[in-house]
Amino acid sequence: MAGPIKAVFLDRDGVINRTVLRGGEQRPPQDLGEWAWMDGVHATLRELSARGYLLLVCTNQPDVARGAQTREQVEAFHALIAQELPVQRVYVCYHDNHHACVCRKPEPGMLLQAQRDFGVELSESWMVGDRATDIAAGRAAGCRTVFMRTLPDAPSGAADHEIATLAALLDIVR
């Protein structure tokens, strides 16, 4: 009999792809010309998939609600992710802070939707992110958490583990 369905939930910007310095702030890329993969993402995700993990992206993309980016631009990134990485689905929250939705991290809505969609056992799963909101969403869903330090001063949100590179995830997620 097969064991529980376990997943690795991954934030997008700062975990899968690099962010872009714009206006003194780290921001998501605006178009495919600004898109750059994080070091080691392809090999790391292939190995996690080989270890039996379902790979799911959970990303806040409020720039769509703010009018700074189109939904089509965001979906072009997700098509690229689906084409190049062994990711089963990309969950996206397009809302901004004032919408008070249940899907926007730090709320666990995207992870809970994945649980319903795939039968994921959340206590056997991991949330990997570069912001405290990612860690809070993982904790609220009952996942173990890994903070990826891509920004030197970002608070870790009291994650279970902290890594400096995505490849280091392979030492933690067995």
Task: Give structural attributes.
two-stranded antiparallel sheet; six-stranded parallel beta sheet; alpha/beta; globular; Rossmann fold; 174 residues; single chain
Task: Compose a concise summary of this entry.
The protein is an alpha/beta fold and 174 residues long.
* Estimated radius of gyration: 15 Å
Give the helix level as a range of percent. Answer: 25-40%
User: Structural class, judged by helices and strands?
Assistant: alpha/beta
Shape: globular
- Residues in β-strands, percent: 15-25%
Number of helices: 4
CATH superfamily: HAD superfamily/HAD-like
Count of structural domains: 1
What pattern of helices and strands is seen along the backbone?
EEEHEHEHEHEE
Question: Main beta sheet: strand number and arrangement?
Answer: 6 strands, parallel
Indicate the CATH topology.
Rossmann fold
Low-confidence stretches: none
Instruction: Give the spatial strand order of the biggest sheet.
Output: 5-4-1-6-7-8
Cα distance spanning the termini: 20 Å
Per CATH, the architecture is: 3-Layer(aba) Sandwich
List the helices and strands and how they pair.
Elements (H helix, E strand, L loop, with lengths): L6 E4 L9 E3 L2 E3 L13 H10 L3 E7 L10 H14 L4 E5 L15 H10 L7 E4 L2 H10 L2 E5 L12 E3 L11
Parallel strand pairs: 1-4, 1-6, 4-5, 6-7, 7-8
Antiparallel strand pairs: 2-3
